[in-house]
Amino acid sequence: MQLNPHFVFNSLNAINYYILRHESEQASTYLTKFSKLIRQAMLNTATEWIPLRNELTALQTYIDLELLRSNNAFEMILNISESLNPDDICIPPMIMYPYVENAIRHGLLQQPITKPVLRINCSAEKGYLLIQIADNGIGRAASMQAQRNGLTAHKSYGHTITTERLQLINDLYGSDSRVDFTDLITNTGTSAGTCVTFSMKLKSC
């Protein structure tokens, strides 16, 4: 339920970096967004369910910080289906954060990509909410190999924690929530990234 400590430390280091370089405007921008994210995280996790819009707002702030820290190294595209009202649909707070973090840290930023893109699609289908988080990064196999070789800064346990959370939510509310992974492949058989799909029964706020 908490932000990854590694991300918090990196954010504070980034702010300090801008201060030391006397880039006060950048430091102020980063600090403002960082404090906004902390505030949003505290508000969102105060309840078991929040409107989808609140989750997306906090997620956008987190992505903005990663864009600042990586010097806009990737593009983010958010699409919400016209049939879905993000103010009327509720989800567990910060349920998407670990997968977005993995997509950015372990997929998009691991090696040069011609046009790194993070896509988040929200839709409703047959009484279920579907949220897809797709990246055109290095793929899960290469990412796991990099972690085994110690090439990444940290190992994320977000998926394990989120899986346990979803099991509890299913037991308590019968929401039939789950997360599925799809390895994206090009026509030539090479990795084209990863798509994570979160699904659960539609729950009105």
From TrEMBL:
UniProt KW Transport keyword: no
Keyword DNA damage: no
Record domain Signal transduction histidine kinase internal region: where: 2-73
Keyword annotations from UniProtKB, A to Z: Kinase, Transferase
Any one GO molecular function term: phosphorelay sensor kinase activity
GO cellular component, one term: membrane
Residues spanning the signal sequence: none
InterPro entries registered for this protein in UniProt: Bact_2-comp_sensor_kinase, HATPase_C_sf, Sig_transdc_His_kin_internal
SUPFAM superfamilies (alphabetical): ATPase domain of HSP90 chaperone/DNA topoisomerase II/histidine kinase
Pfam name, any one: His_kinase
UniProt cross-references to PANTHER family, sorted A to Z: SENSOR HISTIDINE KINASE YPDA (PTHR34220:SF7)
Protein name: Histidine kinase
Top-level taxonomy: Bacteria, Pseudomonadati, Bacteroidota, Cytophagia, Cytophagales
